[in-house]
Amino acid sequence: MVKRIFSIFFICFLILLSVVSPISTSAYEITSFDITAESGMLVSLDTGEVLWEKNANQKVYPASITKIMTAVLMVESDKWDPTAKVTLTQEAFDICLGTGLSVSLLNVGEEFTQLDLLYTVLLSSFGDCTYLAASIFGGSIDGFVDMMNQKAQELGLSGTHYSNPVGLHDEGTYTTARDTHKLTLYAKKFDILNEVTSKSRYKLVTTSGTTRTLSTTNFLLDNSTRYYYQYAKGFKTGYTDMAGRCLVSTASYNGYNYMCILFKCPNNRNNRHEFLESRELYRWAFNNFTFKEIANSSEQVFEIPLELSLDTDFVPLYFKEPFVSVLPKEADDSTIVVKPHFENETATAPIKKGQVLGYAEIIYAEKVIGKVDLIANEDIKQSKLLYFFEVVKNFFTSKAMKFVYIIIGAIVVGFILVCIKLNMPRKKKKIRYVPYKDDK
Q1: HEC states along 69-127?
Q2: Inter-CA distances, 394 with 320, 333, 387, 407, Å
Q3: Cβ-count burial 263-295 (b if 16+ within 10 Å, e if not)
Q4: Which residues sit opposite 249 in a β-bridge?
Q5: Which of 1, 147, 185, 383 is 20 to 30 A from 287, comparing alpha carbons?
């Protein structure tokens, strides 16, 4: 009895633990090194596949990763003009006082270009310049924040909200690793943002002739640090006490391109985990994964039965487009499953070349890694004779005709019953004999 009670208690404890503990998922298991980040992803920029993830939907504080959205709104604005002049205001400087935000060495009243302003926001992550950008491109800081949240909705960032443009810690400023992946993919569509985030240094020259050298906060790009990684390309760092060390970065090598996102790494000045772990994740991906073509669009992969055609009984099916996946180098055809899903059990002529008749799931290690439409690769004519018989068949088997059959059947049955009743022999009525009495 005691053992039974203990077993029930232990099972309940495990269930409770699974509910309250954050669930981590990983596309592929990493055994060669540890990841201290509380949340993150490693995603192929070539195929969109997630090679590794940890608490990707968990709410995190973005710190200065927020400035990716700020920069997007800058370059999307009708006011964006790289050569136009801006002036650092006292208001932009004062709002940073006492917040712990990093500020530029620019003097209030100095003029520089909008392109310079973009570098101060993304490359050096200056708070005063970011507030200045919000005021210029949003009309006001509050107006700019409204624009940020509206853009987040447009991009489908359901786990993201902003209360300020700089990433200053606030309960109203939060995101997720998955949302950050979506946002950064969108930001990378702008060549100017890729260019700015890929630099390690930038010379800013004010209209007064003063030159200042801006340095990147992304040490993966800085060859003067021990965190330098020669294949790194961008993108943005972030830090607050509550957010921890955060990094969104990209790297390219030998035709392979990846994005790594890490949130809330430990704050260790001697070992910057966000750079070390991103570098290890990139090395792991470059060394262990390769492109594999599961099928091309010129080879038949399936077929489906065909009706109303005298030319053929089956429709050959092809992938709409070649499917290429980033998979472990040891993966082979025996470990990859292509599972078809058809819209109907049979297809019906006529069939047009390119017509979608279903899709195929690509499965590796019991996980769906992609979906591809299945299409016909040729035109197939319909037989007019078979079509005529099909129309006749459908007419006589339609719901309306079934209803007519029921009515006709009911009429026939009723007629039969009436006929039976009318032809049944009638029983003769018995007449009671009453003797005649003569009153006389």
Answers
A1: HHHHHHHHCCCCCCCCEEECCHHHHHCCCCCCCCCCCCCCCCEEEHHHHHHHHHCCCCH
A2: 33, 44, 10, 19
A3: bbbeeeeeebbbbbbbbbbbbbbbeebeebebb
A4: 235, 260
A5: 185
Give yes or no for a contact between 316 and 305, defined as CB atoms under 8 angstroms apart: no
DSSP 364-385: ETTEEEEEEEEEESS-BPPPHH
Backbone angles phi, psi at 210, to 5 degrees: -75, 130
Dist. CA 153–CA 295, nearest whole Å: 36
Element holding 289 (H helix, E strand): strand 289-295
DSSP for 18-60, please give it: HHHSPPP--SS---SS----SEEEEEETTT--EEEEESTTS-B
Q: Residue 155 burial (CB < 10 Å; 0-12/13-18/19+)?
A: middle
In this predicted model, what pLDDT tens digit does every residue of 67-78 receive, in sequence order? 999 999 999 999
Distance (Å, rounded) from C-alpha 341 to C-alpha 307?
A: 18
What is the β-pairing status of strands 39-44 and 256-265? antiparallel
Measured distance CA(402)–CA(396) in Å, rounded: 8
Per-residue pLDDT band for 8 (boundaries 50, 70, 90) equals very low
Q: What is the DSSP string of 396-408?
A: HTSHHHHHHHHHH
For 433, which DSSP code? P
Relative orientation angle of helices 114-122 and 67-76, to the nearest 10 degrees: 160
Domains of the chain: 23-288 (3.40.710.10), 296-376 (2.60.410.10)
pLDDT in tens, 384-421: 766 666 566 666 776 776 777 788 888 888 888 888 87
Q: What is the mean pLDDT of residues 240-254?
A: 97
Cα–Cα distance for residue pair 343/367, rounded to 1 Å: 22
Cβ burial of 193 (10 Å; 0-12, 13-18, 19+) is buried
